């Protein structure tokens, strides 16, 4: 019965449609409404069954043709939820179906094949899913198709473009489509544009330039590959091409920029290689040029200055050299310039000041020299000025206060001297202010306290002096390593520094360099100390005399000592291996009080606390105060051990420079390495910052992949040296990222080697208590104390994984969850999704190289020690990986 009645309705409907039967269309629309389960804005209240109202005029979002048939349904941004009723296929004149910005689920019903009049379908931004319906390819009149921002998956059916001779625009972007782009797309003779961006489409780009009228192409963020610049130069009519974030390779052809209508050109984040080439001809319409994050080399093309309409120039993260192009100041429309992370050198051109629309100038990590031009203050609209990581000198321009819109000012890591201009405090919109690692001196202006939008402030590593004003978003680390700063939040109280005349103050400070020797809080007076200086490295006096011993009688000096109780005399012996250290006794002895002071702690290791000691003339050394002597039983043994280590020299080892021994205190002196530990660089503390204006380039961009690889290689060489070139071999047994220090060029300097005798006596209790290297210890060492060079290989392997993933060896993402890095990476690699664990901060790397290093990391952390490679083999493998990249 039911079947029959349905059939009858259908017959009546088809027969009667030519009689303007609007009642039936009303019923169809009410069925559409019936399928809606949520209508939060009551959009469909006007869709009612009262028959005397003309639906063409009363139904919200419904439009009719002159004959009175529904020809458009336009309901957008109305958050309707529900499914699309198949009944809609009864609207025989429907031309436009626009439903973007709703929450429709399910798929487009097959019945819609009957909507042969359909001219435009826009169901963008819904929750539709399933395969892309093939019947759409059979709709003969379709001009515009937009299925973007839904959950469609599977391949794009080839039949979608079967009869698309009239289609003008297709968007399938932001779905989950896989497979390749069907070759049949070239059937679409009238296609002006297509947008397949943000899917997981693979394969090659078909011969799209066979489509004569193509203007707009976006395939951004897919997995397409191949040499596209064989094809693209044939599309002379292109105005917008976005092939960013794919795996395309080959050489970019800038000839395309000369196409008359070209306005937007984005090839960023691919694997394009080779010289960027010159720009001979540039379109009058070109506004956006983004070729960032590829492997392009050669000079920044000077012909770029021919692109008179260019608004955005982004060539960041390539291998470009040469200088900032002459004539850039004539490109009047420029508003964004990003050239950072290249090898560009030369000066910052004065003419940048001519760019009155400039909003972003980002030239970080180049080799720029000279001064920051005063004229930059003419760029009144500037929001971001980042010239960090160069070799700029001179002072901060005094007229930056004219940049009233500035939000980001990043000058860190340069050689800027002079003082901080107080009028920086007038830059009231500033959010990010980093002046660290320069040569700034003088006080910190109190006016900076006015900057109430700051989310990041850093002036560390300068020579600033005086009282620290109260500044938003700052902490002790914002001010650290300015020896003459005092007050909160540093622990140096100001009155201590301010007593005495200026000259005395300087002297007191410069000589307070020291090593001294306060262990507990016991202070005392009148103890004499005899220091024995062994200036072994200085061959100034008698030739080859074994050891010259200079003894100082210091009866007038007061010293603090733990042996205070009995008022006895403490004898200490100081031995220096290095010529470059001060040898004058006063330099070492001087500050009888301040010494190994909490402010100067730079690390706490398994065998002791490490301090930085400063000397006059800018020399620093690291001083490790031993907490335990481990298995060392006598002074002779101590001296023998350290003496042996002092003789080692390798570019990737932090060298030992001497020691101090007394009955109450033992110090090991070693090279001071300025850029901190690998751990500190990989896992920086997170600063709160606003999301709006800041780009990711303000994270720790210092550790790019090239540097990380160098660090891996350097560390491997150091370990290989210890294992193979030292007789007897030296085992490290405490390899971890906190023991890998980074010098000013971010090369690795392994520290803490050869101290295994100093480690607390190894037993399983000792391991857990002292050996704070959780996650790095080889299983056989942890379980049965079986010591071999392969223990180092294991720990080294964990460091490799840390370098690739940016994660700590053991993390606890939530309370009950523990993530062991090695196991995590292994799992991901096995499921073929290795790239999921790459450090997200890495850019512009060779994926294959990361995967190989990751595999090496897993190889090194094999359970069975015999199966791990030796360190010498690791070095060879890394060099192979490296050469694979160069060729
Ligand atoms: C639709 O809503 C979204 C989000 O609420 C908004 O971004 C968009 O501009 C709206 N579209 C139109 C055409 O109003
Ligand atoms: C579909 O609607 C969205 C939202 O307004 C719009 O951006 C898009 O251009 C439309 N697609 C077509 C093909 O008209
Ligand atoms: C996309 O599809 C893949 C499998 O084809 C699936 O694993 C993944 O969850 C999908 N992603 C989304 C966002 O639907
Ligand atoms: C450029 O655009 C204009 C106007 O849209 C058009 O007439 C012309 O044919 C286009 N040029 C090319 C080379 O396609
Ligand atoms: C170019 O595409 C990338 C993604 O591939 C995007 O992040 C970037 O903003 C685009 N550049 C421009 C100028 O739109
Ligand atoms: C720039 O790099 C290219 C190749 O990458 C090289 O041939 C050229 O000598 C370099 N130029 C300068 C000035 O370093
Ligand atoms: C800075 O602005 C002031 C007034 O706003 C103006 O007098 C001065 O000339 C400007 N300085 C520069 C270098 O442009
Ligand atoms: C800053 O450095 C420049 C050269 O780099 C030098 O000429 C100038 O005197 C220095 N200024 C100060 C205040 O030290
Ligand atoms: C800079 O700020 C100070 C006080 O914060 C104010 O007195 C001065 O007028 C400001 N200068 C300019 C040029 O706005």
Automatic annotation (TrEMBL):
Principal location class = membrane
- Protein kinase domain residues are 596-881
Which residue windows are transmembrane per the record? 513-535
Query: Sorted alphabetically, which Gene3D superfamilies does this protein's record hold?
Result: Phosphorylase Kinase, domain 1, Ribonuclease Inhibitor, Transferase(Phosphotransferase) domain 1
According to the UniProt entry, where is the signal peptide?
A: 1-20
Q: Name one GO cellular component term.
A: membrane
Show the GO MF annotations.
ATP binding
Which key words tag this protein in UniProt?
ATP-binding, Glycoprotein, Leucine-rich repeat, Membrane, Nucleotide-binding, Receptor, Repeat, Signal, Transmembrane, Transmembrane helix
Annotated SMART domains: LRR_TYP (SM00369)
InterPro entries assigned: Kinase-like_dom_sf (IPR011009), Leu-rich_rpt (IPR001611), Leu-rich_rpt_typical-subtyp (IPR003591), LRR_dom_sf (IPR032675), LRR_N_plant-typ (IPR013210), Plant_LRR-RLKs (IPR050647), Prot_kinase_dom (IPR000719), Ser-Thr/Tyr_kinase_cat_dom (IPR001245)
List the source organism: Cardamine amara subsp. amara
State the source organism's domain of life.
Eukaryota
Q: Where in the cell is it found?
A: Membrane
Q: How does it sit in the membrane?
A: Single-pass type I membrane protein
Please give the name of this protein. LRR receptor-like serine/threonine-protein kinase
């Amino acid at each position: 019965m039911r079947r029959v009645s349905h059939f009858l309705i259908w017959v009546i409907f088809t027969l009667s449609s030519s009689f303007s039967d609007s009642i039936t269309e009303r019923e169809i629309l009410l069925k559409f409404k019936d399928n809606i389960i949520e209508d939060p804005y009551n959009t469909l209240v006007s869709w009612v069954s009262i028959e005397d109202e003309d639906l063409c005029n009363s139904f919200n979002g419904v439009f009719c043709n002159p004959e009175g048939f529904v020809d458009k349904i336009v309901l957008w941004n109305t958050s309707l939820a529900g499914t699309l009723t198949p009944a809609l296929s009864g609207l025989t004149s429907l031309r436009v179906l626009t439903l973007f910005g709703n929450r429709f689920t399910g798929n487009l019903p097959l019945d819609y094949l009957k909507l042969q009049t359909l001219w435009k379908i826009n169901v963008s931004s819904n929750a539709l899913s399933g395969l892309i319906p093939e019947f759409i390819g059979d709709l003969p009149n379709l001009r515009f198709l937009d299925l973007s921002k839904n959950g469609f998956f599977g391949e794009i059916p080839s039949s979608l473009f079967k009869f698309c001779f009239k289609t003008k625009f297709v968007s399938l972007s932001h779905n989950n489509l896989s497979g390749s782009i069907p070759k049949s797309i070239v059937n679409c003779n009238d296609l002006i544009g297509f947008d397949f961006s943000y899917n997981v489409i693979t394969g090659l780009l078909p011969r799209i330039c066979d489509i004569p009228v193509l203007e707009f192409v976006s395939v951004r963020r897919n997995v397409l590959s191949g040499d596209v610049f064989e094809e693209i130069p044939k599309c002379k009519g292109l105005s917008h091409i976005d092939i960013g974030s794919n795996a395309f390779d080959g050489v970019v052809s800038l000839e395309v920029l000369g196409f008359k209508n070209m306005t937007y050109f984005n090839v960023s984040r691919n694997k394009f290689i080779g010289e960027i080439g010159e720009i001979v001809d540039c379109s009058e319409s070109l506004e956006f040029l983004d070729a960032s994050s590829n492997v392009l080399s050669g000079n920044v093309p000077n012909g770029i200055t021919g692109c008179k309409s260019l608004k955005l120039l982004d060539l960041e993260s390539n291998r470009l050299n040469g200088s900032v192009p002459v004539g850039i100041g004539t490109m009047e429309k420029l508003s964004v310039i990003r050239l950072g992370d290249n090898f560009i050198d030369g000066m910052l051109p004065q003419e940048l000041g001519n760019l009155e629309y400039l909003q972003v100038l980002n030239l970080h990590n180049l080799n720029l020299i000279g001064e920051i031009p005063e004229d930059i203050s003419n760029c009144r609209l500037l929001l971001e000025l980042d010239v960090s990581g160069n070799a700029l000198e001179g002072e901060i321009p005094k007229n930056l206060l004219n940049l009233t819109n500035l939000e980001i000012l990043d000058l860190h890591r340069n050689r800027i001297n002079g003082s901080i201009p107080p009028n920086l405090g007038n830059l009231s919109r500033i959010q990010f202010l980093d002046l660290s690692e320069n040569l700034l001196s003088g006080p910190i202006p109190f006016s900076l306290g006015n900057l109430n939008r700051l989310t990041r402030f850093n002036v560390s590593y300068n020579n600033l002096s005086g009282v620290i004003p109260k500044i938003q978003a700052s902490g002790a680390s914002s001010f650290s390593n300015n020896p003459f700063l005092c007050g909160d939040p540093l622990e140096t109280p100001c009155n201590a520094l301010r007593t005495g005349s200026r000259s005395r103050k300087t002297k007191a400070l410069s000589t307070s360099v020291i090593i001294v020797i306060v262990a507990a809080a016991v202070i005392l007076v009148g103890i004499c100390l005899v220091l024995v200086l062994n200036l072994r490295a200085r061959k100034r006096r008698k030739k080859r005399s074994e050891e010259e011993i200079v003894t100082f009688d210091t009866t007038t000096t007061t010293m603090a000592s733990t042996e205070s109780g009995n008022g006895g005399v403490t004898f200490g012996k100081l031995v220096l291996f290095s010529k470059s250290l001060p040898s004058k006794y006063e330099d070492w002895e001087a500050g009888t009080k301040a010494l190994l002071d909490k402010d100067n702690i730079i690390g706490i290791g398994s065998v002791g606390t490490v301090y930085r000691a400063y000397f006059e003339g800018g020399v620093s050394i690291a001083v490790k105060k031993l907490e335990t002597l481990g298995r060392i039983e006598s002074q002779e043994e101590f001296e023998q051990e350290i003496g042996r280590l002092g003789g080692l020299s390798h570019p990737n080892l932090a060298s030992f420079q001497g020691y101090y021994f007394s009955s109450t205190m033992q110090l090991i002196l070693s090279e001071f390495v300025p850029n901190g530990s690998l751990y500190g660089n990989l896992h920086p503390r997170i600063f709160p910052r606003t999301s709006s204006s800041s780009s990711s380039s303000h994270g720790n961009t210092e550790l790019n992949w090239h540097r990380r690889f160098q660090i891996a290689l350097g560390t491997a060489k150091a370990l290989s040296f210890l294992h193979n070139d030292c007789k007897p071999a030296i085992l490290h047994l405490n390899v971890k990222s906190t023991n890998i220090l980074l010098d000013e060029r971010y090369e690795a300097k392994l520290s803490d080697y050869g101290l295994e005798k100093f480690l607390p006596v190894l037993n399983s209790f000792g391991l857990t208590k002292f050996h704070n290297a959780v996650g790095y210890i080889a299983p056989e060492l942890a379980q049965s104390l079986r010591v071999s060079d392969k223990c180092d290989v294991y720990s080294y392997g964990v460091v490799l994984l840390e370098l690739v993933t940016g994660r700590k060896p053991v993390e606890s993402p939530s309370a009950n969850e523990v993530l062991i890095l090695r196991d995590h990476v292994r799992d991901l690699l096995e499921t073929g999704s290795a790239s999921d664990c790459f450090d997200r901060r890495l850019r512009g790397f060779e994926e294959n190289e990361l995967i190989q290093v990751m595999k090496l990391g897993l190889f090194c952390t094999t359970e069975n020690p015999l199966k791990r490679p030796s360190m010498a083999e690791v070095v060879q493998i890394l060099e192979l990986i490296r050469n694979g990249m160069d060729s």
